[in-house]
UniProtKB/TrEMBL annotation:
PANTHER family: NI-SIROHYDROCHLORIN A,C-DIAMIDE REDUCTIVE CYCLASE COMPLEX, COMPONENT CFBD (PTHR42846). It holds the Pfam family Oxidored_nitro. SUPFAM superfamilies: Helical backbone' metal receptor (SSF53807). The lineage of its organism: Bacteria, Bacillati, Bacillota, Clostridia, Lachnospirales. This is Nitrogenase molybdenum-iron protein, alpha and beta chains.
């Protein structure tokens, strides 16, 4: 196969935590939206968050593509602080503080400040601004650095907003003991599917209250989250929020292999069932079924090349899982490479594969490169036929599930695509 080095894509073997991820398109092609857009979109979804975009007139103009109205449905304020020529050179601290005080007088309860490129370049000290306003206003303030030149695209807008929101409502420090006393368990993500229901019932019967937290009601539950003694992470987008809460945490979202999921559940059981009490097994009987599916997948999916264009925070865990079952990763769409990804990088490399990491912006290069491979795609791609693709709505449905059930649905769908491929049709996976 031709190695398309001219595209400048990053081989997984070269990826480190500080490595920038190249764009899939040529330099002249536009990239993704900046973090400002997704921070605003998340604030709009969460509700009860007022926003203040700090930047140039351009930033203010484009912010209105997301926040079309100055007032939200619950009375939130969505304003822009536009820097003048003097502030671009000497800073905007004084005027910005006056604007925040004005929002406080107008009734804003929680204000998200979004710094864009210019205030980030001039080094405006937002921590100092917040410290000076502490005790002078009733509103809570948090901020994110949304400078586009620092990031590939929009994902940081989600992650940093969740992280800083968690800092606003920061809970107690983690306990040293592994066991958690009966109380409240925070579940970050949606409890959907039969397995999620079984998990919920098991914890409830063990004496725990379950607080389900998703983006639709997170603000209303933030104060309640502080009362939790354990965090279970199912939505990877809320990972930074989980860390900021400083609670003991179990992540269920990054495990796909039956043995890994089983290990997660055993850890959860150890943390929630006191010693000396009868240890009632979680009613999660899908372990053997997933083991059977994995053995079947090793036969039916072996050697099939694939790309991943969605679920960026889980792209490497998914790829490591499918690689262990014999599939061949070719390209993974991500914006960044984190410390948590290192274990999955090593698993993929140990299987003898070195896929590209790219931030997918446009797909002209992708279609040209992919002509050499009969690709499957997890997520939409114009470079792959619909008959070889798990489309975005299907991906969202699968990844809303928990544990064994999620992996079973993923493998079932991939094996369905493999059977359709065997029936004949196009010579490869490209349009």
């Amino acid at each position: 196969m031709t190695d398309k080095k001219e595209y400048g894509w990053l081989p997984l073997s070269k990826a480190t935590v500080r490595t920038g991820i190249p764009l899939s398109g040529i330099p002249g092609e536009p990239g993704r939206h900046c973090p400002m857009h997704t921070a605003l979109a998340l604030a709009k979804q969460l509700g009860n968050i007022s926003t203040l975009v700090v930047g140039t007139a351009e930033c203010g103009y484009y912010s209105r593509y997301v926040m079309t109205e100055q007032r939200g449905r619950n009375g939130e304020l969505h304003y822009v602080y536009e820097l003048d020529a003097n502030e671009v050179v000497f800073g905007c601290r004084k005027g910005l503080m006056e604007a925040i005080c004005e929002m406080d007088r107008e009734g804003a309860k929680l204000i998200l400040l979004i710094l864009t490129c210019v205030p980030a370049l001039i080094g405006e000290d937002m921590e100092a601004v917040m410290q000076e306003l502490n005790g002078k206003i009733a509103a809570k303030i948090f901020f994110i650095d949304g400078a586009h030149f620092k990031y590939n695209g929009y994902l940081t807008g989600f992650l940093d907003t969740y992280r800083q929101l968690g800092e606003v409502y920061n809970g107690l420090e983690s306990r040293e003991s592994i066991h958690i006393e009966n109380g409240q368990v925070n579940f970050l993500g949606s409890l959907r599917g039969a397995e999620a229901l079984a998990l919920k019932c098991a914890l409830t019967e063990a004496g725990y209250e379950i607080l389900e937290v998703n983006h639709q009601d997170i603000i209303g539950k933030m104060a309640k989250i502080r009362e939790g003694s354990l965090t279970i992470l199912q939505d990877p987008n809320q990972g930074q929020l989980a860390k900021a809460l400083k609670k003991p945490e179990i992540s269920l979202c990054r495990s796909f292999l039956a043995e890994d999921i089983r290990a997660d559940y055993r850890t959860l059981k150890e943390m929630t069932i006191p010693e000396g009490k009868a240890e009632k097994e979680f009613q999660l009987n899908s372990y053997e079924l997933l083991k059977e599916k994995e053995e079947k997948a090793r036969k039916e999916l072996k050697g099939i090349p694939f790309i991943i264009t969605v679920q960026e925070l889980l792209a490497l865990p998914i790829a490591a899982y499918l690689t262990a079952l014999g599939m061949e990763p070719k390209l993974l769409g991500v914006e960044s490479f984190s410390q948590e990804d290192c274990i999955y990088r090593d698993r993929i490399l140990n299987e003898g594969y070195d896929p590209y990491l790219v931030t997918i912006t446009e797909e002209k290069n992708l279609k040209e490169w992919g002509k050499d491979y009969p690709l499957f795609s997890i997520g939409h791609s114009t470079a792959v036929l619909e008959s070889r693709m798990i489309n975005n709505p299907q991906v969202q449905k699968i990844f809303a599930l928990v544990g064994y059930e999620r992996s079973i649905f993923l493998l079932d769908r991939l094996m369905e695509l493999a059977k359709e491929k065997e029936k004949g049709g196009e010579a490869d996976g490209l349009i």
